[in-house]
Amino acid sequence: EGCKGLCPHCGANLNDGPCGCVTDRADPRLAVLAQLLGAADHPDLNAQGEEE
Known about the structure:
mainly alpha; 1 helix; 21% helix
């Protein structure tokens, strides 16, 4: 239960300590979702982020 596993980016054993990888990387597979959520905040933009 106390196992922290491996870093998904570099494979370092996280039980030995932090690996130093940047942890706020965005998953590129979610970029479209981010665009759609951003469009909800900006109704004057279409799904491609272009002004209508």
